[in-house]
């Protein structure tokens, strides 16, 4: 008997291509979208300011807006008592594009609906709820403000002319009375002393 020598066996090498499964792209895309959402929310957050009020009646965190000329420019984030319990500290977030309006003379006040013999004010607060009014001022940048008790009397818009008159008696004029020229309203009385 002859012995057969086994033929030399050749090993087969199987190479597999390492491919990334398309399913791994989904978590990567989700991670990129989440990072983008976090960045835009952080970027749009704007400035955080503190406004001191005597009372927090009608102010609700997360719901009470801050408005300038009817446009919402911020929202109340938190309400707390001061350490000496003498005032209410309201933390608010102001939109980024209003950052330059936050100056030393900027004024804030709470707008609530009011009715009196002189007239009705704050009707928009009756429909939409109380809000904090804002009037930008001048001066150095600031992030801590003291709220006014009432809306400022002098809210002069750009292009308006302020005229001071002197008269021997007041007559029937009152704050808010219209000024007429040839039966056409041309102005309003802001204040008198």
- Classify the helix fraction into a percent range: 10-25%
Number of domains: 2
Strand content: 25-35%
Q: Strand pairing plus helix content: what structural class?
A: alpha+beta
Query: What is the approximate shape?
Result: elongated
Total beta strands: 11
Mean pLDDT: 83
In N-to-C order, the SSE pattern is HEEEEEEEHEEEE
Low-confidence stretches: none
Please state the CA-atom Rg, rounded to the nearest Å: 33 Å
- Quaternary status of these chains? single chain
Strand order of the largest sheet: 5-8-2-3-4-1-9
How many helices? The count is 2
Largest sheet: 7 strands, mixed
Q: What is the end-to-end distance? A: 136 Å
Main location: membrane
Keywords: Cell inner membrane, Cell membrane, Membrane, Transmembrane, Transmembrane helix
Transmembrane segments: 21-39
Pfam families: MlaD (PF02470)
Commentary on this structure:
There is one protein chain. The longest helix has 20 residues, at 25-44. The chain has 193 residues and is α+β, with helices and mostly antiparallel strands. The mean pLDDT is 83. The protein contains two helices and eleven strands, in the order αβββββββαββββ. The protein has helices spanning 25-44, 123-128, and strands at residues 47-53, 65-68, 71-81, 88-94, 107-111, 114-116, 119-121, 131-135, 144-146, 178-181, 184-188. Helix content is 13%, strand content 30%.
């Amino acid at each position: 008997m002859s012995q057969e020598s086994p033929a030399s066996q050749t090993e087969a090498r199987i190479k597999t291509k390492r491919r990334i499964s398309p399913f791994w792209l989904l978590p990567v895309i989700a991670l990129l979208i989440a990072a983008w959402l976090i960045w835009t929310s952080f970027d749009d957050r704007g400035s955080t300011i503190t406004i001191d009020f005597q009372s927090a009646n009608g102010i609700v965190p997360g719901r009470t807006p801050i408005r300038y000329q009817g446009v919402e420019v911020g929202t109340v984030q938190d309400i707390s008592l001061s350490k000496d319990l003498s005032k209410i500290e309201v933390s608010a977030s102001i939109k980024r594009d209003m950052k330059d309006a936050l100056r030393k003379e900027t004024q804030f006040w709470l707008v609530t609906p009011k009715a009196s013999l002189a007239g009705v004010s704050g009707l928009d607060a009756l429909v939409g709820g109380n809000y904090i009014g804002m009037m930008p001022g001048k001066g150095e940048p600031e992030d801590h403000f003291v709220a006014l008790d009432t809306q400022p009397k002098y809210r002069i818009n750009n292009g308006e002319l302020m005229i001071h008159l002197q008269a021997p008696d007041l007559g029937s004029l009152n704050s808010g009375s219209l000024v007429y020229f040839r039966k056409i309203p041309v102005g309003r009385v802001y204040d008198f002393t």
